[in-house]
Structures are given as structure tokens and as C-alpha cells.
UniProtKB/TrEMBL annotation:
Keyword list, A-Z: Membrane, Transmembrane, Transmembrane helix
Transmembrane segments: 15-39, 51-69
Name recorded for this polypeptide: Uncharacterized protein
Highest taxon above the source species: Eukaryota
InterPro entries: Hybrid_Histidine_Kinase, TPR-like_helical_dom_sf
Length: 211
């Protein structure tokens, strides 16, 4: 009977680790619909917070919160605020590990509410924090999400700059699959001017409308 309990616990831990791995992959790829599906599946089997270190737990809370802000459903947005409160509690005791996640989730919530200025300010704080701590994939995620917001509010030039920053950070991190994804987006954005400059940053020629 004791052996069965040990096997059951091992099985749950293996399942939790598998879910966490899939969550991180879906998170990095920006597949927040998949994130929500994995979270729902995990809830039916195990309370992952009982099996994880606080650092991993704060990451899961961040992923949960960001996925809820991207779902477009008002009730699930409450999950983002709950996740934010939980991360803030962790950040109170260990700010160096968790404050960047607080900034990033605050940016996502502000963007969801339409508060663009606050969202951009929080993205900038998040990016600066992760750069200081040399957390490349989170730095890249912060830049990528800010790029998406800028694109949405009609600032394609700034959006392109931040997407390039995200790409550079992902490249330094070594995430090849993410590079392919961002390169495809950047390829659509770029229009090469006759002199070889990127049209996003080139000055308009005589008689040419500004972008």
C-alpha cells in the first residue's frame, strides 16, 4: 500500500512536470488558447502549487494571468487579478525573483482595460528588470507583448522596433523555433526601399506619403 502511494505521487509529479513543460512552450510561442486548455486539464488531476518551488509557482501564475487577459472573456480576467495578487505576495519576500513578473502582468491587465500609457510604462519596467537580471526569454516576451500592443494602437514603426528587440533576445537565448515565428512576422512588416533601407525606418521620398 505504501508503494502504491509512492507510485501515485511520482505519477502526479511526472504529470505536473509534463504540464509545466507544455505550458512554458505554449507561453513562449504565444499560444494562450493552448495554455488555457493545459491549465484546465491539469486542474482535473493535480494541484500543481503543492508540487512546485515558489519560483516555478510564480511563473505558472504569470502564465495563467496572461492567458486569461488574452481570452477576451470578462470572468477569466478576474483570474489575472488573482494571479497578480499571488505574485505580489511572493515578490514581497523575494523581489529580485518576482517583481519582473508583477510588472509584466500589470502591463497585460492595463492593456486589457485599454490603459495604453500605463501598459507601456509597465512593459518598459518589465523589460528593464529582466535585462538587469539577464532573464532573456522573459525580456523577449515583454518586448514582444509591447510590440503587439503598439501594433494594435496604430504605431507600426515602434511595434517593429520592439519586435526586433524581442527577436534579438530570443536569438541570444537560443530559441530557434521562436526565431522562425518572429522572422515570418518581421518579413511581412518589412518593405525594402530602393536604397536598401528598411522602409519602416526610411525617410519618405519626394511625393511619397509618410507611413
Amino acid at each position: 500500500e505504501e508503494n502504491n502511494d509512492i507510485d501515485s505521487e511520482r505519477s502526479l509529479r511526472t504529470f505536473a512536470l509534463l504540464c509545466i513543460g507544455k505550458l512554458y512552450l505554449a507561453f513562449v510561442m504565444g499560444e494562450f488558447g493552448v495554455v488555457n486548455q493545459i491549465l484546465e486539464m491539469a486542474k482535473s488531476r493535480v494541484r500543481m502549487e503543492q508540487l512546485m518551488h515558489p519560483m516555478a509557482l510564480s511563473a505558472i501564475e504569470l502564465i495563467t494571468g496572461m492567458a486569461s487577459t488574452c481570452s477576451g472573456r470578462r470572468p477569466t480576467c478576474r483570474r489575472a487579478r488573482v494571479a497578480l495578487r499571488r505574485i505580489k505576495k511572493l515578490a514581497y519576500f523575494s523581489p529580485n525573483f518576482h517583481m519582473g513578473k508583477v510588472f509584466l502582468l500589470e502591463a497585460e491587465i492595463a492593456a486589457r482595460k485599454g490603459n495604453v500609457n500605463k501598459s507601456i510604462m509597465m512593459y518598459e519596467s518589465s523589460t528593464a528588470f529582466f535585462m538587469k537580471e539577464n532573464v532573456l526569454y522573459m525580456q523577449a516576451m515583454s518586448c514582444e507583448r509591447q510590440s503587439r500592443l503598439l501594433e494594435k494602437v496604430g504605431k507600426p514603426i515602434e511595434a517593429g522596433k520592439y519586435l526586433q528587440k524581442a527577436r534579438d533576445a530570443y536569438e541570444e537565448w537560443g530559441c530557434v523555433v521562436k526565431l522562425d515565428q518572429l522572422d515570418a512576422i518581421l518579413a511581412k512588416q518589412k518593405q525594402v526601399a530602393p536604397d536598401g533601407e528598411d522602409r519602416l525606418f526610411a525617410k519618405p521620398q519626394h511625393g511619397e506619403a509618410k507611413l
